[in-house]
Amino acid sequence: MKLTFWGATRQVTGSMYLLELDDEFKILIDCGRNMGREIDYSLPPTNKAFFPFDASLVNLVLLTHAHIDHSGNIPMLYREGYEGQVLCTSPTADLTSLLLYDAANLNLKKVKQAEGDSRKKKKKMDRLLVKGDLYLQKDVEDAMANFVTLQFHRRFKVSDTAWVTFIPAGHLLGAAHIIVEVMEEGQMKSICFSGDIGRKDYPLHIDPSTEIPAVDYLLCETTYGGRLHEDKSSPEDALADIIKRTCIDIPGRLIIPAFSIGRTQALLYTLNRLYTERGFTPIKVFSDSPLAYASTKVYQKNLKQLNKEARDFQDENDSLFDFENLQYIQTEKSSKAISNYAEPCIIISASGMISGGRVEQHIAANINNVYCTILLVGYSSEGTLGWKLMNGQKTLKIKDVEYNVLANVEKIDIFSGHGDQADLLNFVKKQSPEKLKKVFLIHGEEESMMTFKELLATEGYHNIEVPEMGQEYIL
């Protein structure tokens, strides 16, 4: 069989890997959006296909989890002629639906807000609808109609010669490692796609499974391949300390850029525990993201897939997320009105990297406020506003306006959903260095990959590859 790397090669986003079996059955593992890809509408559309392969010849898609850098181009796959199914866990299907519809709405908004005369707007709309650089709601409907859900730990036959098994990865509700087994020439070959690897004792999420079977080939993500998590305190202690300093000791406000799915739920659950179990001073909390509100309902619906601590909390308190002074913000008008709230408050809003979304307006409105603290709680890609703040940049350009950074900027990684270097090493060490034929390092910045590669070498793993975009391997 042949494995081709079409995404997340020496970068974090755009996970996409094509596995072609000897009997010509083709499996695409993840179909993520490259978050750095921008469309130049000044250029005329071409007849070039969106994907570097013929989508109509793909037989099956396997999805590790819902995040847009793993799922975001699935509607495009159907626009390009794919007719098969997408296999994933049930929570992944629910969360992916929310994310894809949200992306479609944003795409339509981009078209409606296009600058220029009506002729230019028509040209942009034609490009959207005909060429298919972006997708709309109908495309998402077509895609979601073909999702088929599987349970964890159930081996499922997908072709005459191939089987798949989903194993809990802990990174997000429903997130999975995927084991693919293939019978070729009387020999069983196996490959594990890590997806994104979670961390132990994370709020809400189950721990990554320790039951990873021995495989011949391993794809391992390396988002944190070059570093360890810094914060050793509990999520409750870390958040309590920051809230006390920023909203109680002084009449300030705390802005937390957070991804709508996963990170926001962990924060709301932790706040609920602070107020419920520690008698923490109630402070107004604004959760400003309709997507976060919808995905929180999915979490509440899937209690059996959360960790025991969360299930016990639910049994004792009847809700994981609802608490005094929490307000979900739905409309743009209500979002903008938060700026007029004069009392100490906490604002949780997307996006986590401050790369678009409502959080940008909150940052712009408060960046000059010395009584405001911006708390960064996760990974930010290089070049994003989150990355610039994290690296101490003194000025920030938001929507073409330059601001001096007078607000306090803090960061904690206790809410990062990614396992760190030690977690990644433990994941790889489930495999024997003598029996494992190759390790492929993916989904990380190149420096992080190289650091992790050197660490693996000291542990006896020597057949380690760091693929380039489009690179092929015969397995």
TrEMBL record:
The protein, known as: MBL fold metallo-hydrolase
Q: Where is the Metallo-beta-lactamase domain?
A: 13-227
Please report the stretch or stretches of sequence annotated as the Beta-Casp domain: 264-389
> What Pfam families does this protein's entry cite?
Beta-Casp, Lactamase_B_6, RMMBL
Superkingdom:
Bacteria
SMART domains, alphabetically? Beta-Casp, Lactamase_B
What Gene3D superfamilies is this protein classified in? Answer: 3.40.50.10890, Ribonuclease Z/Hydroxyacylglutathione hydrolase-like (3.60.15.10)
